[in-house]
Write a structure and sequence with these properties.
Blueprint: H1 9-22, H2 24-29, H3 35-45, E1 52-56, H4 62-71, E2 76-81, H5 84-96, E3 103-106, E4 119-125, H6 134-144, E5 145-156, H7 163-175, H8 192-201, E6 205-218, H9 221-229, H10 234-239, H11 244-257, E7 267-279
Parallel strand pairs: 1-2, 1-4, 2-3, 4-5
Antiparallel strand pairs: 5-7, 6-7
Helix pairs in contact: 7-11, 9-11
Length: 280
């Protein structure tokens, strides 16, 4: 994929790691907002009891824990992420949910430290677009999947169909200078044809992609803004360093931006993700 001018992959990954480590618990607490998306992705994966599963960009193990319930006791799930505090949060919650056998390994998605053909299924929930070189991550997953193994993943759809993220980004762009560390767009894989081509170029076949729409409800604009921060990783890390007065201006701008989504009892924000599945 095209590299952004001035983009520093190592610096970007360090910022993402720091940001997601910061928000680990809140990211996990926000899972109910995205419950239908998670269920749709697991349905696309068609997990079977006894399978060996890797969940890449696993965060606090939201997908991994639900996947474990489908493959245990004879199968197992490995949660992998660059942010170790995210994984630790997931392991704590897994133990509390009587899932003590959840495995976790902190590593870079573009350089997986696993043997060839080790897994039956790979999952990536809202993660592929974060990687500086998503094609390398897919190539790595192709390598660690057994022949005939499966992949299922989700990405944000086209920008104009994802107000959950786009509204917050628009407010930030109006009030703040451009970031010092250029960020790949989270919408860069939001076109089905582009995503399908990337999967096929990595060696996957039988590619299927379908849109999934889901609605997040918020009591007020502050709840929306907090939900965005709880998803934002490195962006949240940068925003947390802003003066209180600037953060207050952002919150006020968000309240104006959300007007079209008012539903009488708060705000209802409908967004689109693409769910993709394929076979090695």
């Amino acid at each position: 994929m095209t590299t952004l001018a001035g983009f520093d992959a190592r610096r970007f990954k360090a910022l993402e790691r720091s940001g997601f480590n910061r928000i680990a618990a809140r990211y996990a607490d926000g899972a109910p907002l995205r419950a239908s998306l998670q269920a749709a992705l697991l349905d696309a994966a068609a997990l079977q009891a006894g399978e060996r599963v890797i969940d890449l960009a696993a965060g606090p193990g939201l997908l991994a824990r639900d996947a474990a319930r489908r493959v245990l006791p004879d199968g197992w799930v490995l949660a992998s992420d660059i942010a170790e505090a995210m994984l630790a949060e997931g392991c704590r919650r897994a133990a509390a949910e009587n899932l003590p056998d959840l495995l976790a390994a902190a590593c870079d998605a573009e350089h997986l430290a696993f043997a060839d053909g080790r897994f039956d299924v790979a999952l990536i929930g809202l993660g592929l677009f974060i990687f500086p070189q998503p094609e390398k991550a897919l190539a790595e997953l192709h390598r660690v999947l057994r022949p005939g193994g499966r992949i299922a993943l989700s990405v944000w759809g086209p920008r104009d169909e994802v107000p959950l993220i786009a509204h917050a980004q628009d407010c930030i762009a109006r009030l703040l200078p451009a970031p010092k560390v250029p960020r790949p767009s989270v919408f860069r894989l939001g076109e089905a044809d582009r995503l399908a081509t990337m999967l096929e170029d990595a060696g996957f076949a039988d590619v299927r992609i379908a849109p999934h729409r889901f609605t997040c409800r918020f009591d007020d604009a502050d709840a929306y803004w907090q939900a965005f921060l709880d998803l934002a990783g490195g962006a949240a890390e940068s925003l947390s360093r802003l003066p209180d007065a600037v953060q207050a201006k952002l919150r006020a701008e968000v309240a104006n931006e959300l007007g079209a989504h008012a539903d009488g009892t708060g705000y209802a924000v409908e967004s689109t993700v693409l769910i993709a599945s394929a076979r090695r």
